[in-house]
Batch of 3 targets.
Target 1
Amino acid sequence: MHRLYADHHGWLQGWIRRKTGCSQRAADLAQDTFLRVLTVRAKGIAVYLDQPRTYLATIARGLVIDQWRRLQLEQAWLEALAAQPEAVQSSPEQLALILETLQQVDALLLCLPARVRRAFLLAQIDGLPYREIAVELGVSERMVKKYLAQAFLHCAVLEAELDGVLVE
């Protein structure tokens, strides 16, 4: 692992810096990439490094995308928050908890099949009734009910995890 780090850290950090345009972010994500490799190896999963740069770039690309999504989500939240009257605004601790929860919900939605995710968002964000969702998705109302049941089940699992009820 030491050899992998010594041979490729500088290259990886430069590669990430070109992708993100930020040397500090590149340094953090390069470290996160090697941490991910260590974590995988610690779990006893074989890591074949015939092409270490390809392997590292694949992991780093995923981390860059994850960070980009988190930044987008955070920016949208901050814009929505800025539109609120001052009396409604939350403390920094509350904001951090809200952002963390939003990131978890975002990750949960990404785990859902595309149609289930779309049905859930149409119902919860757009407030559409089942009939309109069915038309939008080109499925029956019964299928919309199944999609939403699946989405709500995932939400219930997330809520239980957030409340500390479920343990991995």
Target 2
Amino acid sequence: MTTLDFSPLFRSMIGFDRLAASLENAYRTEAGGYPPYNVELQDDNRYCITMAVAGFSNDDLTIELKENILTVGGERAEENGERRFLYRGIANRSFERKFQLADYVRVIDARLQDGLLHIDLIREMPEAMKPRKIAIRTANEERVVGSLNDANQQRAAA
């Protein structure tokens, strides 16, 4: 088994400790499985997960978000033994699929339509995380101590 070494990345990336664990987990997880799904990038901040869940009703499906892990599950009631199949090609099994979401990604909608479960997601960056200009002071200017908001209020008042 190959082990990935992320130490070169951490020389310039601060606070990405969970990134290595997530990448190693994704590396170990095998692709495919049941049910099939798509992950669509709709624009820079909007995504849609579409899962093929034919035969499942709203009551059979669960969607849960906990600690940035989106879990989609399906459980169908057991069929009684009254039916006899000559051939059974339609899966009637339960499933659980997990998706690791980045920080600030949240679920905005989930809908079941024509046997497809659509889960819409959006990334909303808080104002504090958006790029902002940092003022450069000259050597003669006094340094303002306090929060950034206090400094901005003092400059606005001046």
Target 3
Amino acid sequence: MDDKKRCNWCNSSQLYQKYHDEEWGVPVYDDATLFEFLLLETFQAGLSWITILNKRENFRKAFDNFDYQKIALYTDDKIQELLLDAGIIRNKLKVYSAVTNAQNYIKIQEEFGSFSTYIWDFVNGKPIDNNRKSLKEVTATTPLSDKISKDLKKRGFKFVGSTVVYAHMQATGMVNDHVADCWKRNE
């Protein structure tokens, strides 16, 4: 670990710091990466993010490198195989939702040209800078995450409550929630 000032939530491990420094809050416009984060965020529901980060490579292997085209076609046999995989979160509803969400992801791509176009349109194509002074100011949801959550649910997505959606927005840089004294704040 080094002496850089970071958002306090990431200081418990080097893996957390690496994620914070290299990924969290960096704008993502690539559909494949956006799906990876969406899948991971849906599995995180009710758990800590570090739990998911620790299992990320297991998820990558189990879910065909997060290839939503393949995931959309998973059979019951593949789902049963996933439910036996101790390297991931073996929640039956979440595993089934990964398949459903991949199918709906493709439908959004067909409608909007890309998932990126769809999701980034909610913020007019550029990150919202929340100018957080401290971690206490960071909320778990916003009216915008409520709106996106409702729209995704209307389109058939599962495990996309407002908290999951806001975490996805933070992770993919749709919002900048780095606190004022974090070195990543103004990068």
